[in-house]
Amino acid sequence: MGPDAGGASHIARLAVDEAMPLDCGRSLGPIDIAYTTHGRMNADRSNAVLICHALTGDQHVVGTHPVTGRAGWWETLVGPGRPIDTDRMFVICANILGGCMGSTGPASINPQTGTVWGTDFPLVTIADMVRAQKLLIDHLGIDRLFAVVGGSMGGMQVLQWAVSYPDRVFAAVPIATAARHSAQNIAFHEVGRQAIIADPQWHQGRYADHDTRPTKGLAVARMTAHITYLSEMALHTKFGRRLQDRQRMSYGFEADFQVESYLRHQGISFVDRFDANSYLYITRAMDYFDIAADHGGVLANAFRGSRVRFCLISFSSDWLFPTVESRTIARAINAVAGNVSFTEIDTDRGHDAFLLDEPVFARIVSGFMDGAAAHAGLVRP
Amino acid sequence: MGPAVIHDAHGYPALRPDLDLLAGMVEPHARVLDIGCGDGVLLHYLDRVKGCDARGIELSQQGVQECVARGLSVIQGDVDHDLDYFPDDAFDVVVLSQTLQATRRPDLVIRNLVRIGRRAIVSFPNFAYWRCRAYLLLRGRMPRTEGLPYAWYDTPNIHLCTITDFVRLCAASDVRIKTALALDSHGRVVRRDAPGAYANLMGEIGMFVLERAPRISGGLDDTDA
After folding, report:
1. Catalytic residue annotation of A
2. Are residues A298 and A262 part of one domain?
3. Are A21 and A130 in the same domain?
4. Is the ipTM of this complex over 0.90?
5. What is the reported pLDDT for B7?
């Protein structure tokens, strides 16, 4: 059972009169943004918290996922009495632009042609995703978000919000993220994309026209990525070299080891809920993300004059977005005497720790949200 | 059961006397950086009672997490590496309470303090306190006192100094001493105008208010009026 029975799903149609300009030079409109809300907006609309999801997440932050039937991806953190308390806050979580859970993306119909966009869809960036979210926030009549919170790619969006619209955000919580995507991370993404592109069912991205899907390629992409979300210790503890349903090695290429079987399962279950072209677009958006480059190569310039209260959190065994990335952001905010909290949390669970039940993590988010609420003058209902 | 907590007029736990003295030197609503803020007792007081824009730096993960969980703005970092990232005059007051002796380069730290803050308040254990002197003289061993409770092999303190040493370092660093106090182990003032032989002998803790001296050398900002 989800912690918040009061959640609701919506789709907003935005950029209807005027298409939204994109970083790539093209523009897009109308745009559908699918989102869920939890909790109630207060009278002066000052208690809204925008949750930004990671690469393979979506708007179903809490409550039962309509496709998988599983619990929301952040039930540990969001809900009544949880660190992001839906008894107090009005939580909004939107499927990103370029996503495939109801927001406009490569699997949507191109209104000009009446067919699926496929790879004709314009390249979107993290800043474009945030632009679309801002249209949604405007649409909801919210002047200033109390907080923007997210991990991994969601953390990139949080940073982009704080940098693009500092006056529209009171507090920002970028978790397990970076101000730019590293070469190693781009390299992993490229492996995933090439797996999709190499799948004969991909058909240059026009697989919808052929009534098929590059599921094998997408599953391989997911398997590769999934390894980067865990730590060596987490994999070792979970699987070691244990064999799957057998006493001895097959001396072939079946899934002899539990870890293989686990990854295959991850890959197969992913293709049921995700679009391959979406995966290409979203990974590309992350690759292009570099806040410093957008500010003359000096990260601190992005935060100059900002009054946003930041809380950066990293995890000690995260090798995808290691602590040094968060520390770099904290130092850049310090360099302009901004308001920042930063801590690393000790855990052996890797990058995915932000999605798991980590009591210290929950306590920190909770404390930060309470402290920020006190400073924002948000009174408890 | 722990000892009963004494609360002040605002309903907050009363500060340790040396922190109370220190808090009294910070004007309300000031921009303050507390370096080595521990579990955030002083920071919390400055933030909630004095309405300061109070930030902290703390080395220990536990301390930082304690602070952030209390809603305070604290980064995990250390005084030897993280001060360089702050701009000049970022704060009205920079506090370094009982931490100087644990830094790698106290000389560079002091220069940074008066660079990033208009004022710096520094306190440290005085190694020339008579009990320390007596301990070493009579027992021939590294002193262990209330203010310096560690054994020589597991102490975080790597650069212990005396009040006289500190005064000399300030002079050599073009740092102006605005106020100098010698305190006892309870944080009570035993001597004002402390840079003297008496304070050096009788003070268990030295507490100094520092300012950047005009015409600072060594590549630091010299625009201070």
Report:
1. 152, 318, 351
2. no
3. yes
4. no
5. 59
